[in-house]
Amino acid sequence: MQSQDVAQSATPSSPAGPVIGVEQAEAALVEHYPRLVRLAYLVLPAPAGRSRRVLGAHGLVQRALPRGRTPAPLIPAQQAGRDGDPGYALVRLQVVRTALKRGARSERWARLTPPLPRVWGLKLYPRPGGADELALDQRLSALSGPARAAHALRGLERLPDGDVRRVLTAAGVTDVEGALAEADGIPEPYRLLGSCEFDPCSLTARPTDLLRRRRHLKAALVGGAALAVCGTLLGLPGDGWGADGAAAPPYARNPAAQAALDPGRLTRVSPTVWKTSARTDFSVWPARGDRTGDRALLRRALAVWARPGKSVRVSATPGTPAGGPAGPPQLLYAGTVDTARVVILYDGLRVVRYAEPEDGTEGAALDFARADGAGRAGSGAVVLSRADGNVRYLTAPWVRGAGERDLREPGSGAMALTLVDGVTSPLASPALREGPCTSWNVLRLTDGTGARLLTDLGELVPARLTAGPPGSPQDVSGAKALRTWAPYACSLGAMRSAGVRSVNAWAFAEQPLPGVRRDAEWVCTRAETWRGGGARVLAQFHTPGARYGAVAAKAESVPACGKREPRVLAGVLWKSATDGWYLLAAGSRGTASVSATGGVEGTARGNLLSVRAEKGARADLEGRLENGRSISGLR
Questions:
Q1: What's the pTM?
Q2: Given its phi and psi angles, is residue 355 left (phi above 0), alpha (psi -120 to 50 degrees) or beta?
């Protein structure tokens, strides 16, 4: 009852603690500045944009000092190094209070420029994290300000709920219990709050609108008349700025830049070149679509690629440069798709998609994806559009048929898709689906060499699915490969937006279950990227009759389960219906022995280990290969 009364108080206050001087508060702020800025960034509203949130977080922390001697709240700082520091508790309370006030005026604040600090000529962003961090940021943005503050105080500050209530109450929150209940809806691990995605002190810098800065400088020097003259001189000959649609005004005039923006110089490949070419990749795709002759559309696409305006939504897969073309690129497609005009271009390294609404250029989008060294298998299709939970693809000229199948149901057949000038009819996209994973629809393509499966992972180029040992993976076409993938299809969701080129599933071991006359299956899935680094590896464990596999271990940027290191060792705690808990471990073929140390002790000859264990026990795994080399367990 007491906590409920406090939560609903109209004029919240906190018990007075020791009186804090400005010098003590400043010392606490300087010592813990990175954590305070991270806390402010998490609480501030997302509509302001990441760059504005960064500057706003730094600004409100730097203005969090009290003006004089101030009583500190009796709210402890839980983390090591801050215990018993009333100065830190005072500054933290001021940061939360100010961030919540900003959130209450989020729409107005999103339009205003933070007063200080200011960084002229640069936009600052936290370093991007993985798919888990992106999903957490999206879920946090949907919460109210008090709920975001509650989640940050719990996860970042490690405060128990009683102290969280006192901080929120002192910060002016009227419905503390509602904020805590709303924050309970985020089950993600708190460790993600410490990642680079939410670190406004470790930043990536990009230039702002260069031309606008130049024009402002010239205006200060020579006045409005000189600015108009400058704008005229910077315009490209024969074309006004309006011809470039959503592009920023031009800021360079040189022959190479003008050639790259000339629709007449686009490379166009004959429809029959691929039949005789030594190469079979995007470089031999012909130009298709009903707007390949629309010079105005092509001009806008090239101009936006060279210098996207402030209203253009730009995305790029990890490791993909987003700069303009070095010369005239190749045209792959220009046409109307659903309710948008779409242009797809290729410059030998990247596939670039420009899309604008049919009724104008407001809301244009520009997407980049690496596609160097694609080959025939990696250049089978490109995403044309995503709408209403569906995706359309533009397929390679050598594709003879397309279909849609559910990877979760290996026994079901593929549903045929129509192909019109290489464009498929829409199919359900797992990259757009929210909620539990009950199916995973993939694209099936057939050509003169066989069939292969591709999956949409939220990027321009779909990822190729394969199955088998890392040294000789095969396309998923036969019944065995389909059965291998079925329990693990939903794990592909962990690989969205990571620049994935292909994903291989390898059943590396089968293990008898203690007390059960059935075998469990161990499968390793490895996602290779277009950039080469950042491969993601999952070791998964599937018991007979289970609908889904369980992730036993995962790692990133490791050679295990790949062509360079075709070995893997992983373990999992498994509960028998009759005998209690066991540590089960399995190594790939060629493992001579497996040992467990730490919370569980045991050794077994061969590639399988089964040892009794306690619930929650942790163990370190090490295997010995037949050639005498050791291998560590995947974590």
A1: 0.62
A2: beta
